[in-house]
UniProtKB/TrEMBL annotation:
Pfam families: Beta-lactamase (PF00144). It comes from Cercophora scortea. Residues 25-476 form the Beta-lactamase-related domain. This is Beta-lactamase/transpeptidase-like protein. Belongs to the peptidase S12 family.
């Protein structure tokens, strides 16, 4: 054995030792927040290492996961679909470019009766789809049902949105191209473009053009339901959390008022706290084939299933292409690259060419690190944070900072705030390993979050780092896959930058400090979540009551936004029930307390009000075990609908979904209008 070979093996062993040193912290992150198991893959300078946590299902009889255990990767599907689009554009036969308007591919949109697509040079195009630059989220979103069902089986309802919805003010002003507006519809449309241009399912295209060339033989899309539930390929089971005991501990501690951050932190650290209990749920149908055998629109945005071994193959090739591009002075020689490599090169051209303020490009969240500090010592954005993790730790630090400022003897609270902030200072040594002219570096990441599964990946191409975490659970309080991935990326990057060796005292101290900091961050996030949870449950209990199905019978009916986009309000045994798209989970409805009764034939009660406010938000003890998880944001108003335009019989003509993420636009133009009544 040569000296160089011996050194390489020693380095690999040292790196594996680093992951094992981190195992207790990661196992604690998973177990404390209701996660059953997961698989981790790390790529550094071409070397791969794997770490597996927990089990594939609940109980000691379940097998342990490994690097070929298959998980739903959810929205980590998007970079793969984006690459497929670049491969299609590069072949020259599709007559596609990034600037091609969507109407050129879907001629049925040309005669749209509205002006959504008709603003001069502001046509929605291929690049807009891949960069998530649209206004879909201001009207609806492509949801999966709480029990994992996918109501939309074809692309037609999404095309209906484009044909029939008016442009909102943001679109008219052209501002939609200056920021990310996350929506699954964009990637459902991108996949439909692939199918229109090739004549084959997008799933067949990605298998032939991406999975097969890269040797990703444990990666699947549009799996038939019977195969997903018990076929020849073993898929990891899906889980959520049972939280009755957890919520009871919270209520017993303080439920009548929103507890302070410090109070909830004490609860988490006390013996009274009851951790969430994992529960098996039906898997998300995002990865299933539709009734016709094709992928569903949700599958096109979040339905690929894979393993850590296969995903590292994809990320390794992506990093190799990054360095091939960086080592060339011109485009000459790129003709010798494979089809996948040419697609990745074009993809990276678009990512790198975006303005530094651009946060999403070509299927990737992008960030230039390090991020700038505000004057008060707080980072503008936690690079890589996903979902509710970042805003919750920021709020916790803010509250802790303000609390200390009001206490006697805390004149140096600002300095303490910066000190606390260091506990979650991510990639703090990045300036030592600069790759760009200004000493910063480009980082790419993406998360995934569907019923029964969470995932996260983080790439720093210049440093040849890729980390992927796949988890078979939607846990409670926080996204453990996201936080685990950030911890690993941070340690591996700093470990490499500092020239540390795993056997040195300095390295052990550094790793131990990072693990302590991660536990602090997790506690901050969970404590802030409890505060939000108490506020959510208090509002639901104090401001709303069950909508009696007899008393509000005149609200029963079908309400349509556009062709194929509708909701059904039906009469349940206990309450009115709300069902999106007429399929999947039926949400029990609550009416705002002291809301005037509706005039109906049965009640004979009159009122002069113009609207009735209801919500289909439900208590977390009922919500979380269905598989929806408990780490997303909590806001009763996200589920608030307002019945309007009552006739002389007290029957509403429409409702608006007062979705609090709306940004501008005319809400009355996107009302769900009654098309059928069951009264």
């Amino acid at each position: 054995m040569s000296t160089s070979q011996q050194v390489k093996e020693e380095d690999d062993l040292a790196f594996d030792g680093l992951l094992q040193h981190l195992r207790p912290t990661i196992e604690n992150l998973f177990a404390a927040y209701g996660n059953v198991g997961g698989s981790i893959g790390v790529l550094k300078d071409g070397h791969q290492s794997f770490l597996d946590i927990g089990r594939q299902g609940i109980g000691n009889s379940e097998p342990e996961p490994d690097s070929i255990t298959i998980y739903l990767i959810s929205s980590m599907t998007k970079p793969i679909v984006a690459l497929a689009m670049f491969i299609l554009i590069n072949d020259g036969q599709s007559q596609l470019s990034l600037d091609t308007p969507l109407m050129d591919v879907f001629p049925e949109l040309v005669d749209s009766p509205t002006n959504f697509l008709q603003y001069a040079d502001r046509h929605l195009n291929m690049a807009d789809l891949l960069d998530l630059r649209s206004t879909f989220l201001t009207c609806t979103n492509l949801w999966e049902s709480l029990n994992g069902e996918i109501p939309w089986q074809t692309i037609d309802p999404i095309l209906s949105l484009l044909r029939e919805l008016p442009a909102n003010e943001e679109f008219i002003a052209g501002d939609f191209r200056h920021k990310r507006n996350y929506s699954n519809e964009c990637f459902a449309l991108a996949s439909a473009v692939i199918e229109r241009k090739t004549g084959i399912p997008w799933t067949s295209f990605v298998h032939k053009k991406i999975f097969e060339p890269l040797g990703m033989d444990r990666t699947f899309a549009a799996v038939p339901g019977v195969e997903r539930l018990g076929g020849s390929v073993a898929f990891s089971k899906s889980h959520s959390a049972r939280v009755e005991g957890t919520l009871q501990a919270v209520r017993s501690y303080s439920f009548d008022q929103t507890p302070s951050f410090r109070a909830t932190l004490r609860l988490l650290q006390s013996e009274a706290f009851v951790p969430p209990e994992p529960v098996e749920v039906s898997p998300s149908q995002a990865s299933w084939a539709s009734d016709t055998g094709a992928s569903t629109p949700m599958g096109e945005a979040a339905g690929i299933m894979s393993c850590t071994r296969d995903l590292l193959k994809f990320y390794r090739k992506f990093i190799d292409v990054y360095h091939m591009r960086a080592g060339k002075q011109s485009r000459e020689g790129f003709g010798q690259l494979t089809e996948v490599e040419r697609g990745m090169a074009a993809m990276q051209d678009l990512i790198g060419g975006r303005d530094p303020s651009c946060t999403y490009a070509s299927g990737w969240n992008r960030v230039i690190i390090p991020s700038a500090l505000h004057g008060d010592g707080l980072w503008s954005r936690w690079p890589g944070a996903d979902g509710g993790n970042a805003p919750r730790v920021e709020k916790a630090i803010d509250e802790d900072h303000n609390r200390d400022k009001t206490r006697p003897g805390c004149e140096h609270a600002d300095a303490r705030r910066l000190e606390v902030n260091l506990a979650w200072l991510f990639l703090r040594d990045v300036f030592q390993r600069d790759r760009l002219d200004d000493g910063s570096s480009l980082a790419l990441y993406h998360g995934g979050n569907m019923v029964g599964a969470t995932s996260f990946c983080f790439l720093i191409p210049a440093s040849e780092i890729a980390v992927v975490v796949l988890c078979n659970t939607r846990g409670f309080f926080l996204d453990a896959a996201n936080l685990t991935c950030m911890l690993l990326t941070d340690i591996i990057f700093d470990y490499d930058v500092g020239g540390r060796s795993s056997g040195t005292r300095l390295a052990r101290a550094f790793i131990n400090e990072s693990c302590r900091n991660t536990r602090t961050v997790a506690a901050f996030i969970a404590a802030q979540y409890i505060s939000e949870l108490v506020h959510y449950e208090s509002r639901l209990a104090n401001e709303y009551e069950i909508a009696d199905p007899v008393q509000y019978a005149s609200c029963v009916g079908t309400y349509q936004l556009t062709d194929g986009i509708f909701a059904v309000v039906s009469e349940g045994k206990v309450a009115l029930e709300f069902q999106l798209y007429g399929k999947g989970f039926k949400y029990p409805m609550r009416v705002k307390v002291r809301e005037p009764l509706i005039h109906s034939k049965s009640s004979g009660v009159h009122h002069d009000e113009k609207q009735v406010v209801m919500t289909f938000a439900i208590p977390m003890a009922d919500l979380v075990p269905t598989g929806v998880g408990g780490s997303n944001r909590l806001d009763v108003d996200d589920f608030k609908i307002i019945f309007k335009r009552f006739n002389e019989l007290g029957v509403p003509g429409e409702f608006t979904w007062d979705f609090s993420r709306h940004e501008g636009g005319r809400r009355e133009d996107i009302a769900f209008r009654r098309v059928h009544s069951f009264c």
